[in-house]
Amino acid sequence: MKELRSRCKIAVVQAEPVMFDKAACLEKACRLIKEAAEHGAELIVFPELFIPGYPFGMNFGFRTGCRSKSGREDWKRYHDNSILSDGPEIAQLAQLCAEYGVYLSIGYSERDAVNGTLYNSNVMIAPDQKVYNHRKLKPTGSERVIWGDANRDFFPVMETPWGPVGNLICWESYMPLARVALYEKGISIYISPNTNDNPEWQDTIRHIAIEGHCYFINCDMIIRKSSYPKDLNEYDALADLPDTVCRGGSCVIDPFGHQLGECIWDEEGIIYAEMDMQAVPASKMEHDVCGHYARPDVLHFSFDE
Fold first, then answer.
1. Collapsed DSSP state (helix, strand, coil) of residue 179
2. How far is CA 266 from CA 66, 107, 146, 251, in A?
3. Closest CA to 40 of 259, 274, 269, 253
4. Which amino acids are annotated catalytic?
5. Chain-centre distance of CA 138, in angstroms?
6. What is the C-alpha to C-alpha distance for residues 12 and 45, in angstroms, rounded to an integer?
7. How confident is the model at residue 173 (pLDDT cuts 50, 70, 90)?
8. Burial 111-138 (b: 16+ CB within 10 A, else e)
9. Residue 255 burial (CB count, 10 A)
10. Which of 61, 100, 151, 283 could form a Cys-Cys staple with 68, CB 3.0–4.6 A?
11. Mean per-residue pLDDT, 208-213
């Protein structure tokens, strides 16, 4: 491994998006980035689909073989509040990274610049304004009603003073070979923007941190039923949702599977943590998943960039 800067101060932002409102989401993101930077954060992480929110519980009028005009109108509203990977919103975030000298990871609904497809995407931005875009490989379950499979931007890795940083979105982390693709690139920090507030996920993140001997950044969000626009055509479809739709559970896990600092539930907040980056190479003494603990003569792996 290359030499790593010994310390990284991270800010994990557990916040609620302003549902279906890209401008308000961007304004809130910028405000929270400034707050985190002013508290000394060097790497700032936001949840999955922070812009313009994760439409949990919505079906947009889809049933097998059926559509509805009202659902299509709601989908179009979400489409119009999705953003381009090289659009003005990303440019504004990149400018803020340059201004404050921070690295950023944030999830958003990406609108393709050519066709009509949306992608569940996550962007990492460096202080030099270089942008690393990642599209979710396979939307989970009925997410496929909204977003398409990634057709590019599969496994970008951002070079930082603390080593390579990569991300997989939500259930992508249940794809073993996708994890290996990041391990093959030598990541020291594994970012997971997600909406997994179930207790089993807390076991998963510890396993992955130990498996990859890297820091696992678990960044979830808060979603309240009261936050959905009341004028959605399909608003009645949300009736069975609990008042708190997504409870969060954000935290930082070290390369040995231990929680670093606090874990936040049921409220917005920013977790600040000092990551000892020397723990990454130290943890690989007895287990280096793509190094001395691998058997390339027996097990072969390749992936298409």
1. helix
2. 36, 20, 27, 13
3. 274
4. 48, 136, 170
5. 14
6. 5
7. very high
8. beeeeeebbbbbbbbbbeeebbbbbbbb
9. 25
10. 61
11. 98
